[in-house]
Task: structure prediction
Amino acid sequence: MKELIKTVNLGHGYFGADGARVTALENINITVHTGEFVAIIGTNGSGKSTLAKHLNALLLPTSGQCLVNGQPTDKVEYLWQIRQTVGMVFQNPDNQLVAAVVEEDVAFGPENLGIEPREIVRRVKEALELVGMSDYRLYPPHRLSGGQKQRVAIAGMLAMRPKCLVLDEPTAMLDPIGRREVLDTVRNLNHQGMTIVYITHAMEEALNADRVIVLDQGILAFQGTPAEVFSQVDRLKDLGLDVPIAADIAWRLRGNGLAVPQSIITNEALAVVLCP
Result:
């Protein structure tokens, strides 16, 4: 797969309110390939959101580099291409919607890019179809559920034709139905070729990823496939993280002497072992 995003010894520091130097990220080396679904997990303060904002140059490195399509994010001449390549979706959908009607909101980004009006209409229609919100195109956003608002926010990003979506805890403020709607939308986009970087506190959501990156206090703790990461229950718990329910049950059963494979991390796999 083609390399889309790469960080090289990426560091980010700032001065706190008391004037003391705070290190938010230190020596982060990760690669995201085209078409990949990467989940980033970690406790509060681990650097997840800081890292996310580096991926489309909302923040700039204080040491090391972040490269998008080989272009360093701290070079102003590349900023336009980087922002078009990587789109951001944040936690609170209400903070991302700017228009009084759904289709106008989705059109806002392309309009600011100077896209020709007929092309904007086509992009808005296509983006709303991709997130399953075509029937709501003339609705005012305040009449939508949280999950529907977040899908409109995603559509707004899609209308600008990014190659990658970075989603910073997009389901954190949603109810279970809204979380499922958004996660299903993200999965479908990835299956159609969209590169996804998905920051989450919900370990069950990270099971959908091709690869999971674990941050701890601004440092890359470890990474691997969901099976490789979530089978390390002791290590994750030591970092203050939850694990998927099935992985936790399997871990407890092993602790009580039952021969449950360490690779069990999903409910379906656990059911097969316990009810053969």
Q: What stands out?
A: The two ends are 37 Å apart (CA to CA). The chain has a mean pLDDT of 93. The longest helix spans residues 176-191. The chain has one domain: 3-243.
